[in-house]
Prior knowledge:
Helix content is 41%, strand content 18%. With 205 residues, the chain is of the alpha+beta class. The protein has 2 domains: 7-155, CATH 3.30.1330.130; 170-201, 2-Layer Sandwich (Wheat Germ Agglutinin (Isolectin 2), domain 1), CATH 3.30.60.20. Helix 1 crosses helix 3.
Amino acid sequence: xxxxxxxxxxxxxxxxxxxxxxxxxxxxxxxxxxxxxxxxxxxxxxxxxxxxxxxxxxxxxxxxxxxxxxxxxxxxxxxxxxxxxxxxxxxxxxxxxxxxxxxxxxxxxxxxxxxxxxxxxxxxxxxxxxxxxxxxxxxxxxxxxxxxxxxxxxxxxxxxxxxxxxxxxxxxxxxxxxxxxxxxxxxxxxxxxxxxxxxxxxxxx
Length: 205
Ligand SMILES: [Zn+2]
Ligand SMILES: [Zn+2]
């Protein structure tokens, strides 16, 4: 089945993100799957862990209620299009791994080729720009129309549900004097330092 959100909802996601793009469309489908399985999270009941920080994370936050600010959206910088969700009340959880072939086929995408060309040559001809636009729109349509069960390989989430947001003490950095969450400070040469000051003094090269 194709995407079940109304056009109005999708338009609001696009507004929030700033533009329509394939990455955002992927995030919309991830959110759709999570909402179907676990429902919406107005508090910290549901936690999302994203292994990428691409465009799609805006759709996931906007639609599921798992947000960075509330502490129930966690980014792990692994560079994978994989998304885990946990529901605290019954420990229901799963991990979605994007199955790109389900909507773009086996071959190297002509879209990627054009992106690489633009990167190498600095710009594209007007014809190539137009072609890229068409390919991008087609790609978005494919993502929105692919059945969810084909879009993702669903497996077990590979870690326990992350703990609830914690209120931590703040320490004052001995170098800049700015108040810093204790768990983000470093001890160096007998001083307590914030990350910024630590990075300045701790130079391995
Ligand atoms: Zn985008
Ligand atoms: Zn500092």
